[in-house]
Design a protein that fits this description.
By secondary structure, the chain is of the alpha+beta class. 30% of the residues lie in helices and 15% in strands. The structure holds iron/sulfur cluster (2 copies). One iron/sulfur cluster (SF4) is lined by residues 24, 29, 59, 66, 68-69, 76, 78, 82-83, 86. It comes from Thermoproteus sp. AZ2.
Length: 144
């Protein structure tokens, strides 16, 4: 099956995100190979923004928040290029079902149709992030 992750805009959940930044604090979003390609193309080195743990690449945290989060402006420094997982949030998958994470203050505004539209991708996302370290090695994305 070909990769669906080449069109990041498709994976943005249409709901009332108030850009509070809660999902950028204390979380380490998992990364897909396509996320790493997109972010390294901006000039960042893999080791600057990602850590591999348990066979999964994740966004690095600094001072308790994502390395790309700017607390002064409560904003994401790479917003147009941010990872697929950041776009899919607050949809999450617990291994059994896709649901809306209630940590997000506006989780109630996620329409049912968005859960139906993106739910299959949330499951696939969890599967594909596990393959990321292999793909990164094969494509040489981790080079300094
Ligand atoms: S926690 Fe929810 S409302 Fe706040 S920035 Fe994240 S997705 Fe948007
Ligand atoms: S990449 Fe941007 S949207 Fe994603 S967790 Fe980091 S600061 Fe937040």
């Amino acid at each position: 099956m070909s990769s669906p992750w080449r069109s990041p805009e498709f994976f943005e959940v249409r709901f009332k995100c108030i850009k509070c930044g809660i999902c950028c604090i204390g979380t380490e979003m998992e990364l897909l190979p396509e996320d790493i390609e997109r972010i390294t193309a901006l000039g960042y080195r893999l080791g600057e923004f990602a850590v591999e743990r348990g066979g999964v690449y994740r966004l690095k945290n600094v001072d308790g928040h994502c390395v790309f989060y700017d607390p002064a402006t409560s904003s994401c420094k790479i917003y147009p290029h941010r990872p697929i997982g950041c776009r899919l949030y607050p949809l999450v998958f617990d291994g059994r079902e896709v649901y809306v994470d209630r940590t997000c203050p506006t989780w109630r505004t996620v329409p049912r149709r968005e859960i139906e539209r993106l739910g299959p991708y949330v499951k696939r996302f969890v599967e594909d992030v596990r393959a990321t370290p292999i793909v990164v090695r094969l494509r040489g994305l981790g080079r300094p």
